């Protein structure tokens, strides 16, 4: 009697560990659901939207310019930020705002990315804190799941902040 | 014939079920608990790799203790390199957020470590790519804390946090009030 209970307990614990590990691998290497909050990515993603962010691109280093990514905040590793990639390492990015008279540019250092929110007026991003290391990126947002009326893939950048280089037009 | 087919199928089923248990458990263990890594290079001499060359130390990286990004000054940690996301570097934590650091060869003489960042240095100054080259490192890049040296056997030891002489942050006692 006691041995049966012990056997069942061990079996239960074993199954929990196994399914827990499979869940960890799924969230870490396949993708996760993210609830977004804040106005910095309007109109593409608004407050309380639920999106699916896939992890494979990040592990295979295939994040591209124009992708929306979820990244760890450089100032608080327990918080996540959702922004669009404007420049990868070596790219030229514009650091002045559209209202400035003289435009200033900078080049993204090696191993870093330049992120900006789609809602330029209400977004704290690389224009404030500089480029962030690539390894802080957690995943690429590929699908919006909620609300149902805007279900589907996400649109291109509404701001014209991405500077296209010669190599981009060649690869198209 | 039929017996061979069923034996083959049994083997395949056993293999597949074993695979689906072993791989996720191993991957989860390496991601969440502990990781073993070989230290290459001379940036942490004389503490790690004192002989250099072909004799590299192997350390045990504790990933569970950094799950909440808690580190102490003097810990040896492995961090994803800000210059190359595919590479991990092993350095010592010299300062945490809010500390003032007197730098060695950085663009500013004195630096206040921003929130959510820390300052890492290799023990072998001048031969180390660390915060003196690329500035404070974001805590989100923390990978693990080196807790033990496990190879070669004559160098088995537990690694305790200790700051090198003259490399601590400035004025820490006053700031803790």
From TrEMBL, chain A:
<dbReference type="InterPro" id="IPR000223">
    <property type="entry name" value="Pept_S26A_signal_pept_1"/>
</dbReference>
<keyword id="KW-0472">Membrane</keyword>
<comment type="subunit">
    <text>Heterodimer of 2 subunits, IMMPL1 and IMMPL2.</text>
</comment>
<keyword id="KW-0999">Mitochondrion inner membrane</keyword>
<comment type="similarity">
    <text>Belongs to the peptidase S26 family. IMP1 subfamily.</text>
</comment>
<keyword id="KW-0496">Mitochondrion</keyword>
<keyword id="KW-0645">Protease</keyword>
<dbReference type="GO" id="GO:0042720">
    <property type="term" value="C:mitochondrial inner membrane peptidase complex"/>
</dbReference>
<feature type="domain" description="Peptidase S26">
    <location>
        <begin position="18"/>
        <end position="95"/>
    </location>
</feature>
<dbReference type="InterPro" id="IPR052064">
    <property type="entry name" value="Mito_IMP1_subunit"/>
</dbReference>
<dbReference type="GO" id="GO:0006627">
    <property type="term" value="P:protein processing involved in protein targeting to mitochondrion"/>
</dbReference>
<protein>
    <recommendedName>
        <fullName>Mitochondrial inner membrane protease subunit</fullName>
        <ecNumber>3.4.21.-</ecNumber>
    </recommendedName>
</protein>
<dbReference type="Pfam" id="PF10502">
    <property type="entry name" value="Peptidase_S26"/>
</dbReference>
<feature type="active site">
    <location>
        <position position="83"/>
    </location>
</feature>
<dbReference type="GO" id="GO:0006465">
    <property type="term" value="P:signal peptide processing"/>
</dbReference>
<feature type="active site">
    <location>
        <position position="40"/>
    </location>
</feature>
<dbReference type="GO" id="GO:0004252">
    <property type="term" value="F:serine-type endopeptidase activity"/>
</dbReference>
<feature type="domain" description="Peptidase S26">
    <location>
        <begin position="102"/>
        <end position="146"/>
    </location>
</feature>
<dbReference type="InterPro" id="IPR036286">
    <property type="entry name" value="LexA/Signal_pep-like_sf"/>
</dbReference>
<dbReference type="InterPro" id="IPR019533">
    <property type="entry name" value="Peptidase_S26"/>
</dbReference>
<keyword id="KW-0378">Hydrolase</keyword>
């Amino acid at each position: 009697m006691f041995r049966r209970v012990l056997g069942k307990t061990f079996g239960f614990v074993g199954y929990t560990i196994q399914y827990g590990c499979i869940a960890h691998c799924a969230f870490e290497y396949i993708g996760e659901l993210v609830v977004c909050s804040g106005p910095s990515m309007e109109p593409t993603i608004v407050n309380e939207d639920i999106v699916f962010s896939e992890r494979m691109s990040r592990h295979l280093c295939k994040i591209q310019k124009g992708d929306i990514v979820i990244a760890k905040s450089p100032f608080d590793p327990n918080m996540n930020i959702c922004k669009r990639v404007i420049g990868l390492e070596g790219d030229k990015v514009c650091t002045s705002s559209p209202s400035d008279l003289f435009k200033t540019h900078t080049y993204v250092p090696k191993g870093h990315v330049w992120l900006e929110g789609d809602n330029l007026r209400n977004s704290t991003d690389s224009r404030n804190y500089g480029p962030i290391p690539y390894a802080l990126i957690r995943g690429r947002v590929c699908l919006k799941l909620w609300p149902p009326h805007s279900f589907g893939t996400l649109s291109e950048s509404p701001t014209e902040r991405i500077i296209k280089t010669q190599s981009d037009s060649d690869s198209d | 014939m039929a017996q061979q087919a069923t034996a083959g199928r049994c083997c395949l089923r056993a293999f597949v079920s074993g695979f689906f248990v072993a791989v996720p458990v191993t991957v989860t263990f390496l991601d969440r608990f502990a990781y073993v890594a070989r230290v290459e290079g001379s940036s942490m001499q004389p503490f790690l790799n004192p002989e250099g060359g072909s004799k590299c130390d192997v350390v045990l990286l504790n990933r569970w203790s950094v799950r909440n990004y808690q580190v102490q000054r003097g810990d040896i940690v492995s961090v994803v390199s800000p210059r190359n996301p595919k590479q991990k570097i092993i350095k010592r934590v010299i300062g945490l957020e809010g500390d003032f650091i007197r730098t060695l060869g950085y663009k500013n003489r004195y630096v206040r470590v921003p929130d959510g960042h820390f300052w890492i240095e290799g023990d072998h100054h001048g031969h180390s790519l660390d915060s003196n080259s690329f500035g404070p490192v974001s805590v989100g890049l923390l990978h693990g804390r080196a807790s033990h040296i496990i190879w070669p056997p004559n160098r088995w030891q537990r690694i305790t946090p200790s700051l090198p002489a003259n490399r601590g942050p400035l004025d820490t006692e006053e700031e803790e009030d």
